[in-house]
């Protein structure tokens, strides 16, 4: 297939997937579509791993090494506000994080590798459900992913709005953060708004807590160590002229090491309980670990950077990029096997195409980078499994 035909095929795949988004563990049509495309390529396809997950295998030559390439499949619960002809046909669901493009990129790599066969070993194309919830990678592993389909290394990619289109960046060590969720329940004593002295105002108490939590970052954390505490929901059972009895604060934290996660949890609990106690209120503090930090293996970063430079040139590759405080459940795979996660630029202000943020109702994956991503993965396999 020539370049024009290949790019046309990539766009066709991507736009179909964009128009038919499905959320976590509901990727039934998506899985069927991906499996058919892979089967039509002549690949050995295994389905229903960890729910809707897929593994497709391609072996060339007699090499014993096995490398995994992963794409995420799920959409998010968001109503699309785009105007293109391939907008979501599923109300309230949208590929607003680019997983349609990630799937297409790996399909494209599979297409190139089945045609070129310029490596010696086995490639496993892994299509994972439920990345957005942080549960899909774990579900696949609990279903025996690496026992049934062992890999020596695994590689993944995420598009990045704001980065020049087609540029590639990565780093050794922590590249994406953990996500821990918290819920702080405060019980005071409600009263009439005209008589605050007769109650124990949980809004004031909760406000003290929200402000005090930020001092953990500024005064308990080493300034050279990145961490974030974000209070994102503030819920009361009051009305305009009544001070409430209950307030709930929800939010999440981001960091890169278990030590920082522990420090954040302990200090947040101490601050929340302490402020409630001095104000005569009750406090319940809940803290859960949702995503582990995504930590790249240095030796795999070297391979990824070499492959990226071969495809897009040295000036378009950053091998020591800034960390991103968002989370990614590819992290769970990297806790089990070596690997590397990279970012590919979706576009910036210079092109006006791919700079709309992720999880925005008008976001769209930049079709111009599909071939670049596919070539990157194909080159990575060629470099890693060279004959």
TrEMBL record:
Domain Peptidase M20 dimerisation: residue ranges: 182-269
A Pfam cross-reference name: M20_dimer
Record protein name field: Amidohydrolase
Organism: Siminovitchia fordii
